[in-house]
Amino acid sequence: RCIPLWVGARGIEFDWKYIQMSFDSNISLVHYITMAGLVWMFSRYDLPRHYRLPIAVLLGLSVYKAFLMESFVHVLLLGSWTALLIKAMVTGAISLSSLILYINLVHSN
């Protein structure tokens, strides 16, 4: 995703789609790091039982986030910037929730 930003955004004609692509890439990076953390927490052998359900729900939301977001954008006919903002908010909420679970898990051990 870096090549279109480098080639397209530095040309004579500027287009906002390259900035949107860079924001989308950063949001995706945070999403993938969050998913890796959730998978790591779920696969721990010493995970307390009361953490299994919230982590499983967050993993399910992470896996189906793209489908849910595309459905939501299609049904509400949202613009590209609004869809990007909603994607950032959903990713932030999932990331913050998993961070809170991780901190509680670390402090409980």
Question: Could you characterize the architecture of this molecule?
Answer:
- The chain is mainly α and 109 residues long.
- The chain has one domain.
- Helix content is 83%, strand content 0%.
- The chain has helices at 2-9, 16-42, 49-63, 65-76, 80-108.
- α2 packs antiparallel against α3 (49-63).
- The relative contact order is 0.14.
End-to-end C-alpha gap: 40 Å
Note the quaternary state here.
single chain
Kindly estimate the percentage of residues that lie in beta strands according to DSSP: under 5%
- List low-confidence stretches: none
The computed structural class is mainly alpha
Q: What is the number of domains?
A: 1
If you average the pLDDT, what whole number results? 86
What's the gyration radius in Å? 17 Å
User: What's the total number of strands?
Assistant: 0
Treating each run of at least 4 consecutive H or I residues as one helix, how many helices?
5
Largest sheet: none
Secondary-structure element order, as H and E?
Answer: HHHHH
Helical fraction equals: over 70%
Keywords: Cell membrane, Endoplasmic reticulum, Membrane, Transmembrane, Transmembrane helix
Organism: Scyliorhinus torazame
Membrane topology: Multi-pass membrane protein
Family: Belongs to the TMEM147 family.
Essential attributes:
single chain, 109 residues, mainly alpha, 5 helices, 83% helix, cell membrane, membrane
